[in-house]
Amino acid sequence: MFKNRASFWLAMCVVSALLTLGFACGGGDKGKPEEGGTPEKGTAGPKYTGAVGSVTGKVAFTGAAPEPKKVDTSADAACGKANPTLSTEDTMVKDGKLANVFVYIKDGTTADGKKIGDFT
């Protein structure tokens, strides 16, 4: 008898979870702009479907590069003993070029004159 009751409640929990998941995932297209329209504030714009391009270049660094910062290893004596000159380089410069750079395009236009900010 206990086995049947446990199976019943397990099945009810699974069905309930699946129904909850189904209702949570069905969002429709709220906030989706009409074709050619502009998105409402706080909603994503239309996806860019034009030609795909790339951005290439080098990021130059002028002036003297900052000295590497010493890492505080006082909390772990073994680490400090094994690495007495442990340091980090937040800014890595070699031959006037900056390494590990993240480039973010905030604004601009596509080749056909549409604003980049209007796309997701």
Record field, number of beta strands = 4
Oligomeric state, counting identical vs distinct chains = single chain
N-to-C span: 56 Å
- Bulk shape: flat
Percent of residues in helices: 25-40%
Helix-and-strand structural type: alpha+beta
Strand line-up of the largest beta sheet: 1-2
Radius of gyration of CA atoms, rounded to a whole number: 28 Å
How much of the sequence is in beta strands? 5-15%
Describe it.
The structure is a single chain. This protein is of the alpha+beta class and 120 residues long. Helix content is 25%, strand content 7%. It has helices at 2-25, 77-82, and strands spanning 69-70, 87-88, 93-94, 97-98. It has a two-stranded antiparallel ribbon. The protein is flat, with a radius of gyration of 28 Å. It starts with a helix and ends in a 22-residue tail after the last strand.
Task: List the main descriptive attributes of the protein structure presented here.
alpha+beta; 25% helix; 2 helices; two-stranded antiparallel sheet; single chain
Helix and strand topology:
Layout lengths: L1 H24 L43 E2 L6 H6 L4 E2 L4 E2 L2 E2 L22
Antiparallel strand pairs: 1-2, 3-4
Provide a short characterization of the protein structure.
By secondary structure, this protein is an alpha+beta fold. The chain has helices at 2-25, 77-82; strands at 69-70, 87-88, 93-94, 97-98.
